[in-house]
Records
---
Amino acid sequence: MRLSKSIKIVQRKTPGGRTVEHLKKERFSYTLCRNCGAKLNKSRLNPKKLSKVERRSERPFSDLCPRCMKKVLKEMVRK
Ligand SMILES: [Zn+2]
């Protein structure tokens, strides 16, 4: 029986040797900005199901949010 797409049935062995079925819910981790901690886009999806290009943005400083990237770029130019 399939309950939901986000819930998986996993076989787990108990210390007594029995094999039981456990329900496991998929966990999503948010990709956060390295500087301010804001959530980046496409982060609600499971990162393992996305391709490498979809996991991060393709602009420079892909681990920063657009606002932090703007600040960093401005500082680089001023120096
Ligand atoms: Zn940021």
---
Amino acid sequence: MAVQKKRTTAKRSGSSKSAVPVTIPARKAKAAFVKKGQHIRVVNTHGTQVVDCWALNADNMTEFMSMEHCRVFLESIIPRKGDVMVTNRRRPIIKITEDSASGTHDTLLAACDRYRYELLGCKDYHANCTDNFWEAMVMAGYKPVELPSPFNLWQNTPVEVDGTIKPNAPVTRKGDFIVMRAMMNLVICLSACPQDITAICGNKPRSAQFEIF
Ligand SMILES: [Zn+2]
């Protein structure tokens, strides 16, 4: 399986303080290289946007942040500030160093895809995080080999006491942010979820923002 060679022009100097904010357009995704030791800050610009987050080993795309392995490692379904997220090889890949939303994220649900929207009644093609992932990774020069399960930032879908999971409206605030430190050279991919059928993005997909520093 091919492994990417080309890397983006994203800042690779770990000492740089002049982070340039990058907009993740509504319904779209962006991918960028992050050097070990650098930080990624993702901002919920409008306060209502779920952002699907993936992190892949930049040198070997078969290794990636894995939600099922993180849940074992953390003994929790809710990653919080200070927690280390691990790969499908159980190695540290990112550490959450700041989280203004105090763990209001999801590690259980799959990325949305065209089939999800078909089941929700869409007759025509609907933008989705799965296609966003592949498109953004290819646009940034990478060739992932599979779609990992996403870390769904700000997605308000907790498991209720009766075991159900509902697509609740967001409870986050404008400007909420999370900061993650890269624990290996990685590629981050962030999708502003196009979900507008259920309430998870407030029924109105919006843009978000990230920066690497
Ligand atoms: Zn989505």
